[in-house]
Amino acid sequence: MYTVYKYKFTLLLGLALSSLTLSAQVRMADNTALASAPSSSAFLDASSNNTWNATANRGKGLVFPRVDLSTFVAFNYSGTPGVASNYPTRFDGMIVYNTATSGVAGLGSTQGTLTPGFWYYDNKSTSSLAGGTWRPLGQTSVVSLTSATTPAGNLVGQVGYNTSTVAPTGLIYWDGTKWQPVNQTSTNTITLTSASAPAGTTVGQVAYNNSATVEPKGLVYWDGTQWKPIGGDPVIGNEVLNATTNKGLIRAGTGTSADPYTLGLTDGTATNQVMVWDGTKWTPGATGLTTTALTSATTPAGLNVGDMRYNTSAAGGVPVGPVYWDGAKWVPVNQTSTITLTSASAPAGTTVGQVAYNNSATVEPKGLVYWDGTQWKPIGGDPVIGNEVLNATTNKGLIRAGTGTSADPYTLGLTDGTATNQAMVWDGTKWTPGATGLTTTALTSATTPAGLNVGDMRYNTSAAGGVPVGPVYWDGTKWVPVNQTSTITLTSASTPAGTTVGQVAYNNSATVEPKGLVYWDGTQWKPVGGDPVIGNEVLDATANMGLTRSGSGTAASPYTLGLSSGTTNGQVMMWDGTKWTLSASNIIHKGRVLCDGNSTQIITNANVTATATIILTYEDPAKGPVVSLAVGDRATGTFSVVFGAVPPTTAYINYTILP
Q1: 100 with 69: CB under 8 angstroms?
Q2: Rounded to 5°, angle at Cα 53 from 52 and 54
Q3: Centroid of chain to Cα 556
């Protein structure tokens, strides 16, 4: 019995000593006892402790002992390391918190230079504890540079934060040979004297050139040899983004300074070849002009006015080259020659339509000219006379005045109104001056009297309420002037400040950008329409005005505008009352009848079909209440009009029948 008690005492004493040894090396919060976790993948588990989980601050972290790896020269252990039961990986993966700020570890290799923070021991050796490499657990660390290369980084791309005054300061990264700033944007502006002076300090450096004369202006970057504009050089010429598909032009070039975009016709494949419309697009014709050897200006005769041939013989007095039949004789397509005019009619031309180039330095018209039978006229119009405007688009609100001569050049403008404060009104087909102008009101404040609907317009006749005299609109809470444009002289992009977000003004400063028409965005003035120097000028096509936009507005797929492709030769675009659409026919029918005083009225027209589109408008010369109307039943030759109320017999129904 004595022997048994002796062994029991010895075992209990050993467990107690073991417990004392453990508590002397590791302290646990609240002396929480260890518990078994059978078959767990985790060798330690503190996440299952209900006592700690129920508190905000207790038992939440792991505190590592600190070590100066530069003085760490050996691993301490007992037994034989490298066997399955005793450090089988030879401390591979061991994590420490290093306090050394420079140098290398005292044991094994070191990746780069020691910096404070977590490091781990990467040891793949199967025979040595000293065969591993200490590596930083994370590549971002705090460093205090003494030069751009000291202390060196550990990995290309390693990010650190330099706390010293040695450049580069702040957030930095290691490029393999030196530390670079993560952000190379200059906080100061530069004034260039040339595209390469003053030179940049780092490839990719960004700065703002405030020179008024030296290009590139504005935001620029250093490419190693010169400054380049960010967003493309505004003077190099990649403004032409593309050619509209199937409209006869093709784009060449890559849109760079060395190879800018150019537009031109597709190359032909045979001499004298012409461009032909194949029903879908312009393409070089399968063959060129038919050749002929003219023996005179009339032999052999042409078949139709406008017939073209290629004359191969000058024996008949007609130059070799393309000719066309004018109904009586063959005429050279190109009669261009160089002349020196002494007056607009001397020397005289030889044929009406003859083209020549006047190289006189003093006598107008200069450049390319044609003979009209009595004098030489400029081709394309006199560049100083101003008949470049040929016409106004039908029903788009403008009218053309003038005769297109030097004395009376063409001008465009809105149709004159007939009453003060009159507005332009869309009548369903075109813009016309409204029957009456804006209703006048004398505002006593920006909200009195209140508007009825958002967008209501009035003409304010009194400035007593703080709103300028003139057209105003109701924005839902107050009256706003329709036009707040004024002239300002900016001293900076935000001085003087605007008064209202969206305010439009004209900056007449000769030096401060943005110049010209600007608007106030709440903090600074911005150019109206974007940066006038850079240019993604084509933004979209006006809805329902016949054009469609293609592309996505990128360098690879820029915007282009063009008409929708047709589906049939001879097809036309038609206005259906809302938009332009393709139609197989170009015939529309209109009519106007008096109301018969009933709530439903039958109208007879032979052009009506059961599926025809019919557009109605209501017209009351007496200016009575507007009566709503809609198309009712349709049948061949007739359709009904349904009114919202019985109309007076003095009112009219205007209708348009689309095919």
Answers
A1: yes
A2: 90
A3: 12
CA distance 136 to 139: 6
Rounded CA separation 578/545 (Å)? 9
For 7, phi and psi rounded to 5 degrees?
Answer: -65, -40
Side chain identity, residue 213: T
Q: Cβ of 343: how many Cβ atoms within 10 Å?
A: 11
Q: What are phi and psi of 614, to 5 degrees?
A: -125, 130
Distance CA 436, CA 414 (A): 16
**Length of the chain as a residue count:** 659
Are 518 and 507 in contact by the 8 Å Cβ rule? The answer is yes
For the record, the structure tokens of 117 come out as 């923070």
pLDDT tens-place string over residues 212-246: 888 887 777 777 888 887 654 444 444 556 777 76
- How far is residue 253's CA from residue 249's CA, in Å, rounded to a whole number? 13
Contact 472, 458 (CB under 8 A): yes
pTM of the model: 0.27
As given in the structure block, the two tokens for residue 154 are 């550990």
Residues in Cβ contact with 495 at an 8 Å cutoff, skipping those fewer than 6 apart: none
Query: Taking CA 278 as the corner, what is the angle to CA 274 and CA 281, rounded to the nearest 5 degrees?
Result: 90
In the chain, the N- to C-terminal Cα span, in Å, equals 122
Sorted by where each begins, the domain ranges of the chain are: 1-60, 547-583, 589-658
Residue 315 · residue 295 · CB < 8 Å: yes
> What tens digit of pLDDT does each residue of 534-577 get?
344 556 777 666 677 787 766 567 777 777 777 655 455 666 66
SS3 assignment for 122-144? ECCCCCCCCCCEEEECCCCEEEC
CA dihedral for 414, 418, 419, 420, sign (positive or negative):
positive
Q: How far is CA 404 from CA 165, 400, 504, in A?
A: 72, 10, 34
pLDDT the model gives residue 409: 74
Phi-psi region of 289 (alpha: psi -120 to 50; beta: other; left: phi over 0): beta
